[in-house]
Design goal:
By secondary structure, the protein is mostly helical. It contains eleven helices and no strands.
């Protein structure tokens, strides 16, 4: 059923079916969950890679390879590992400025990511989670992007459902982005 739904939605035909994975595993929801995960903790490689490859930042496979190759080639890592350390190296390491200059598109995308995450981390300190999610939709432009995709109405509904889950979460005794991410992981599991 999932294959048929994907084919129909990519052809612009609205379709829905009861699936075993549910809407948490749709690409649009996974992207927002990854963005929330790195807003909470920058040192998560899989969500970081997902956001970098997503339409939010739009890095290509080749750019991702250069990002990590430039970092791996660096001699002094001082205990820093992972994708966020590579991002920081590309943006702030004076010894590697020629690498950033040689690949200005990569640097431009990383600066966009850094600015966006800085905003989201600040907003996360005082906004309720559902409002933070709506701000992420608006400031990243991802909600509009998803709306323009084939099956955009269903995809937007998936994102709206995520914001509704955030509202439901806020009615519990738990607070904060970390606990919301764990709450969603439990919902996925059960």
């Amino acid at each position: 059923a999932e294959t048929y739904v994907n084919i129909l939605m990519n052809a612009g035909i609205p379709a829905a079916a009861q699936t075993q994975t549910g809407y948490f595993d749709t690409p649009e929801v996974e992207t927002v969950l990854s963005l929330l995960a790195i807003t909470d903790n920058l040192f998560q490689d899989i969500p970081m890679a997902a956001v970098l490859r997503s339409p939010v930042i739009s890095m290509t496979d080749e750019e991702m390879a250069w990002l990590m190759a430039g970092f791996k080639k660096q001699g002094k890592k001082e205990g820093d590992r992972g994708m966020y350390a590579a991002v920081r190296m590309w943006l702030y390491d004076e010894d590697r400025q020629e690498l950033s200059a040689a690949f200005p598109k990569i640097r431009e995308k990383l600066e966009k990511l850094e600015k966006m995450l800085e905003e989201f981390r600040f907003l996360a300190t005082y906004l309720p989670i559902h409002e933070l999610i709506h701000e992420i939709y608006q400031r990243s432009g991802y909600y509009d992007y998803v709306a323009a995709m084939p099956g955009g109405t269903v995809r937007k509904a998936n994102l709206d459902m995520l914001a509704e889950k955030a509202s439901a979460y806020e009615k519990t005794s738990y607070r904060g982005l970390f606990h919301f991410i764990r709450y969603i992981e439990k919902l996925k599991k059960y």
